[in-house]
């Protein structure tokens, strides 16, 4: 029974194009996944950065505002008692310093001249300071006087050494129904202690932090802590609020950008390329296995299985195409004697030469297959009975010519039987059986002819 036609799979151009398209699609998918991971990491970093600066902001606001709140007690007392003595100031200042360790010193400056400093030890240089003579501090004093509100200056270099944040509050009192300017109170916060207390001194392993807004001017103020480059596309930024002013604190990754995930991209691309390589190798192995399953390994002709598939296909297509075809069974005569006389190696060489000689007399559209042993089958689409008969005679003629095997000439012949579809057979099975039967009939005829010639030759001998 003839097997149904089995497809040979996509041709190389189609297969490799498909592999290339899938590979490109996988590259796009890999980049999409890497992009999603990068976005996720960016989101995580931003959340972590916001949490980091939120904690620092809360610490800064808590510590600075608590100091300012305590200092308001002294301001209120002086406002109510503008003519009070230094002893009372001393008691209130000592209480404030005791409650607020970050306070470096407290000062009172009647008429903008520093007359009182607590504690005096280490701050002697501030005593007698005339603000109007200090261009680095006088602007903030004028601002406090004009706004009549507390201002936060700094961080500034203190005359007594070190850096400090100075909260200055203008003090006004009423006397005789009139409002008079008394002077300034100032609370100096130790800047280095503040930075250390809120955890900024030793930095952060994950982020670089920076603060801008010198003199509480917010985004318009100078950067006074950290690298100014942090404010170039920071991961997160947040205001730090004080009475009548603010700072801006920002965070950025140590390398200034979201990780590129080169390792993930390399791994993804590697897997895609591995897929492409494996797919190409598998296709090559498939083509090799398919070729082996459809090709005779000795002669390179197609094998019986391949020919049966093509025969069935032509028969199935005939109702639509109307194209008939012929089949020739070709058997090599005296091949067994060649094997017995010269050996199987020479017999194999003879089969190869016979296949080449047959192939030289068929069209590109024809299929030459080895049926096994010393038999070949020729399938010829679009031919009729007279074409098959003529080719059968031609094949018998060319196969009777000698074959040169090294220094020897070997003579064989061929017996050819043919059948035509659909003129002589209505199915592929009938066609094969008819061509095979005719080939054996032709083989018997040739044996009889050879026997007759041999008898005549013997009678002629003396």
| pLDDT averaged residue by residue | 85
What is the architecture of the largest domain at the second tier of CATH? 2-Layer Sandwich
Biggest β-sheet, characterized? 5 strands, antiparallel
Whole-number radius of gyration?
53 Å
**Which band does the percent of strand residues land in?**
15-25%
CATH class of the largest domain: Alpha Beta
Low-confidence stretches: 1-7
Q: Between the first and last Cα atoms, what is the distance in angstroms?
A: 55 Å
Q: What is the number of domains?
A: 2
- What CATH calls the topology of the largest domain is Beta-Lactamase
The largest beta-sheet arranges its strands as: 2-1-5-4-3
